[in-house]
Structures are given as structure tokens and as C-alpha cells.
Amino acid sequence: MLSHAPVPAPTSQLTIDSAPLNSFHKRLTLFSSGGPFLDGYILAIIGIALVQIIPQWQMNEWWNGLIGASALVGVFIGGLVFGNITDKIGRKLMYTIDLVAIIVFSIAQFWANEPWQLFTLRLLIGIAVGADYPIATALVAEFVPSNWRARLLGGLNAMWFVGATVAAFVGYWLLSLDDGWRWMLLSSAVPAVLILIARATIPESPHWLVGKGRHDEALVILKKTIGEEATLDGITAHDPNAVKLSTGKAFKMVLTGGYLNRVIFISIFWTCTIVTLFSIYAFGPQILALFHLESGDAANIGYGLINLFFLVGNIVALLVVDKLGRRPVLIWGFILSGVGLLFLALFPTAPLGLIALAFAFYAIFNGGPSILEWIYPNELFPTKVRATAVGLCTGTSRIGAAIGTFATPLALTHLGLSGTMWIAAGIALVGAGASYFMAPETKGKNLEDAASLHA
């Protein structure tokens, strides 16, 4: 009898979209989430720091609003400028430069003695944070398998609320010190150092490398990160014009035709999501004090609990976004969070339990729009302008958020609590309307199909 050697089974090929989730994807997502963690931490900590700064410096409502909004103005500048630079020089280099800036300027806040000094430093920190948005999200979007993309990108945004929650309790703890606000603002340098060290192990994006014609480098990275059977299949073929894509051409591509419609949609829904959210974070203790919560410990504990509700809402939204789809999670998130704000507008003197329930209702259902802030921008634009587009949308959303944050203390003074909440409820309604008429459905699509105008 003749013996026959067994025929080896054909080796399966792996692509970015078909690869199973592995330890590298988890590390990449965790380290990339450092940027939103810091963003949430930096914005939330100022809300508690201002409790001490305002009486110590005898600041008026104008400086109060300017310092509260300064980081948001910086995010606008950073996202607008550095998103395009990231598309040119790569994700990895900018991935570390921005953290160095956050560390330096966070430490410098400790020695601020005038409102203009603190405003300037927080503006510079915001620029660095704004630069990180398009960098970190593009890396995750371009590395992870398609069936995990929404959950991991949304998870980055959830880390914003983790950072804000940690800041609330750190700030509450440091309020017992006479100059506790200085240590609060300095403290953001600590996680920034840890994140900087961790990110040193993250390679360049294969999508970006292929877009620059560096196919061999991209394949080496894929083999190291997803397996030896990895191929470049599913990554857009090299476009020789991509290397020569100037800043003007990149913005022109993003701001014309169907992509302009996507920029408008994302900018509107993102702005409507964060205007009220950021105002609550920047002035949370002051707002809660007006809702019958005495200033001091009770207000700050309530502030921390609201942060936890925001985080719960993000987690719930992450669990359902791939099952229900992007559109329903976004639209119903706006509608239901708006109901909570409407109650606060109608009944600002309601019993404390109902006030807390309304805040919790708003915070939990805000999770849907919140996680989609980073899912939609990364899915709806092609690789060669993805960071440019994300930076642009980040920046434009921060214009409205900065205006809203600056105007919050003025609105509370001149319109009262109920009037301010009416405006917030109206903003949620605008977000729901824009989402209903403009939001596409990208559930189940790979990154290239989701970004295509013809898919």
C-alpha cells in the first residue's frame, strides 16, 4: 500500500478587518484613551479649582467664563491645525509630542498668579489636547477589526468621563488644602507622564503608510501586530497623489461635495452634545449649588456622582451601538437626554431627589451621542484626510462649546437657572433634528466602505 502524506491545509490570510481582537488592539486602545482621559480630567478639574480661585483672585464672571472656556478654545486650534499635520507626518510622531506639551503646561499652572496667566496656560494645554483627538482616534480606527471598531472608538470617548470622574474626586480631596487648586491643576501632569511612556511601544498606522506608498513597512507592522499571515488586503491602494496632498488640497477635499455634508452633520451633532456637557463640567459645583445643593462638600459629591452617571451612559451605549445601529442610538440619545434637561427647566425648585433623577436621566442618555463623537468622524472620511477631517470637526464643535462655556456664568446671572436649562433643552432638540435628517448608518461596514461617498 502506498502511504500518502497529509495535504497541509491552506494558510488563512488575515486582514485588518478580519483579524481577531488581540492584546495589541487592547493596548493600543488603552494607550490611545489617555488623550480623552486627560481631556476630561483637565476640563473637570477646573470646575472645582474655580471654587477656590474665584474668591482668592476676586475674579468677575468674565474671567470666570474665559478661564472655564480657555481649554476648549485651545482644542479648536489644536484640532484644526494638527489634524492636517498628522495626515502629513504620520500618527506616531504627533502621538508623543502633544503629551510632552500637556506635561509642561500642566506643571506651569502651579505658579500662575494672574487670571491671564492661567487663561494662557490652559489655552496651550487645550491646543495639545486638540492635537491628540485626530491622532489617537485615527490610529485606533485604522488598526482595529471592523466588528470591534465602534465599541473601541466609543470606548475612547468613555475614557473622557473616567478622567472627569477621577478629577472630580481628586479635586474634592484637594479642596481641603488652602492652595489646593494649584495641586489640582498640576496633577494632570502625572497621568500624562505615564501615558507618554506607554505610547512609546505603538507603531505607525499601516493605512497611513500604504497611503504614502510605504507598503513593505506597513506589512511588517501588520505581521507583528495581527499575525504572520497578515496581508494588506482591505487597505486602500496607494494613491500617488496622496503624497503631494497639500494642506489646501486636504481641506478642499474635506470641504467639498458629500464630505462637506458630513462635516456639517458631525459638527452640529458634536456641538449639540458637548455644549451643555462641558458647561456642567466647567461650572458643575456652581450649578448644583443653585439646585438647592449647598456649596462645598454636598455640591462636589453630587458633581462626582453626575460624572459616574455620564460614564454609565457611555457604557450602555457601547453595548448597544452595534446591535441597534448608529442612527437610533444618536437620535434617541438626544431626545431622551433632552427630556431630563426639560424637566430641570420646568421645575428648577423640585425636590432634591427629582432634581438628581433628572440630572441622571440627562447624563445616562447623553451616552449615545457622546460615544458617536468619535465613531462617526473616523468612519466617514478616507485615510488620507481622516485626521484632517477629525481635527476640523473637533475644532468646529469646540467653537460652540467654548461659547456655551463662556456664556454659562453670564446666563445663570442674567437668565436664571430655568432660562439656562431651557436653552440646554433646545440645544438637545437641535441635535435630534440634525441627526434625524443627516445621520448615515455605517453599522457593519468596513472602514473603506463607510468612508466612501459611493458605497
TrEMBL record:
Superkingdom in the source lineage: Bacteria
Membrane topology designation: Multi-pass membrane protein
Sequence ranges assigned to domain Major facilitator superfamily (MFS) profile in this UniProt record: 28-443
Keyword Chaperone on entry: no
Main subcellular location: membrane
Keyword Phosphoprotein: no
Membrane-spanning parts: 36-54, 66-86, 93-112, 118-140, 152-175, 181-202, 259-281, 301-321, 328-347, 353-375, 387-407, 419-439
Keywords: Membrane, Transmembrane, Transmembrane helix
Subcellular location, record wording: Cell membrane
InterPro entries, per the entry: MFS_dom, MFS_sugar_transport-like, MFS_Sugar_Transporters, MFS_trans_sf, Sugar_transporter_CS
Single Gene Ontology MF annotation: carbohydrate:proton symporter activity
One GO CC annotation: plasma membrane
Homology family: Belongs to the major facilitator superfamily. Sugar transporter (TC 2.A.1.1) family.
Protein name, UniProt field: MFS transporter
